[in-house]
Each structure stands twice: as C-alpha cells, then as structure tokens.
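Q: I'm building a small set of examples for a reading group on sequence design. Run inverse folding on the following structure and report the sequence directly after it, with nothing in between.
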C-alpha cells in the first residue's frame, strides 16, 4: 500500500514494472509529451474521425477507433486486416506524426527492442462503459516486433492473460501517460480492457485514448 502510494507519486520505487518476459510497463513515460500527443490526435481525428467498427461476427465495437501511419487496422464482413486506405474517406490514413514515432521508438528501446520502426498506429477511444473483450493481436506480419501502447485520459483496468483464452488474467491499472511495451513470448498473449469507469480527466474529459504502435508489414 505504502509502496504503491510512493510509486504513484513518483517519489521512490520503480517507474518501470516488468509484467512478463519482454513486457515492460513504463509509468508516466508519455507525460512530458502529453500536450503534443493530444494536439496530434486532434489533427488526425479531424482527417480520419473515430468510428465504431462492426466485427466480422456482426457486433458493433464499443471502442471507437481510427489510425495513422502507412497502414491502418480495419474490420468488416471480410475480416480484420491492415489497409493503406481509410475505407470511410477512400484516402490514405493520416501520416504518423514524428513525436508519435519518436515516443514509440524510445519506449521500445527501454524495453530492449532497439530500432523499432512502427508503420501503423491504432488509436482507440473509450467512453464510460466501453470495453475490449479478450483477444490476441495477430494481424501483424512481423510478430517479432513489439507493440507499444500509450494510455491517455481516464484510467482503465487492463486484463492480461496467457497464450490460451482460458488462462487466468492479471489486472493492471493503466493511467494517463503510462506506456507498455509488449514483445517476446507475451506478444501473442490474450488481453483486454474492462468496462471504462466514468470519471473526468483534466485534459481529455470523460474518455480514455490508447495508442498502439505496431509493425504491421
Ligand atoms: C499485450 N488495446 O488495440 S493496449 C488493441 O488499452 C488493444 O486499448 C488495449 O489491445 C487498449 O489491440 C490494450 C496494451 C496491449 C496492446 C497489444 C498487446 C497489450 C498487448 C499485444 C500483445 C499482448
Ligand atoms: Fe490488443
């Protein structure tokens, strides 16, 4: 309890937490860039607005998404894939802003993955009640590259399971500015996000935004 308190205050204790082999949580790593990141997200979503996808199974996702980078993650009746074109606009996805790229590369290097060069950034928006059920991220061609995740806005409970859907899950609270690097054997672990609790964040209001940087191709 006391250790948690000190850690959250940044007074002492590790700002980095090893979640698994190749999976590293960097508390507050994105905080110095928070304003720059939020401005970039606003510019991206002006070009490629958040939308609720329908899964191949016909369910509307409660999380709204958009993308930037060379390719974006899309879902429709034919399945999930990465595509260079935003199906809503018929145009390429907005370019990945240099501060996004730099942050992802620096975080990956901290976790032992130097030279990470993401070509896709999926941007998830959670409003109160939105959740992400347990899934694996396996649509990327290069599964040797890590995924770097950046959390902004309201805190969320992240569920981290094993390589089988039925494996038990551990829970982690992800807060504004937290960055997680997922590589190594846990790259294919099942994971999800519990329904977002309502709240008010000073910069983002009643929502959480998560960026995931990926090497898709
Ligand atoms: C562990 N996003 O977009 S980020 C996703 O908070 C996704 O929006 C969640 O899962 C979110 O696919 C979690 C953390 C994360 C991302 C990818 C992973 C954890 C991961 C891939 C493998 C293992
Ligand atoms: Fe995922």
């Amino acid at each position: 309890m006391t250790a948690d308190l000190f850690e959250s205050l940044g007074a002492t204790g590790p700002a980095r937490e090893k979640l698994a082999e190749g999976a590293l949580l960097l508390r507050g790593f994105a905080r110095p860039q928070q304003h720059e990141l939020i401005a970039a997200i606003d510019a991206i979503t002006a070009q490629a607005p958040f939308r609720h996808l329908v899964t191949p199974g016909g369910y509307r996702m409660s999380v709204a998404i958009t993308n930037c980078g060379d390719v974006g993650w899309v879902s429709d009746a034919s399945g999930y894939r990465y595509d260079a074109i935003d199906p809503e606009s018929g145009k390429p996805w907005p370019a990945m802003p240099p501060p996004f790229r730099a942050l992802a590369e620096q975080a990956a290097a901290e976790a032992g993955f130097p030279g990470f060069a993401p070509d896709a950034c999926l941007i998830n928006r959670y409003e109160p009640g939105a959740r992400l059920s347990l899934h694996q991220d396996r649509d990327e061609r290069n599964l040797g590259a890590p995924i770097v995740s950046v959390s902004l806005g309201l805190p969320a409970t992240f569920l981290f399971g094993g390589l089988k859907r039925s494996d038990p899950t551990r829970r982690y609270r992800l807060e504004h500015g937290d960055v997680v690097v997922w590589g190594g054997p846990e790259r294919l672990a099942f994971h999800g996000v519990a329904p977002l609790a309502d709240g008010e964040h000073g910069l983002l209001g009643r929502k959480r935004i998560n960026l995931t940087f990926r090497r898709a191709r």
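Residues 19 and 29 are 16 Å apart (CA to CA).
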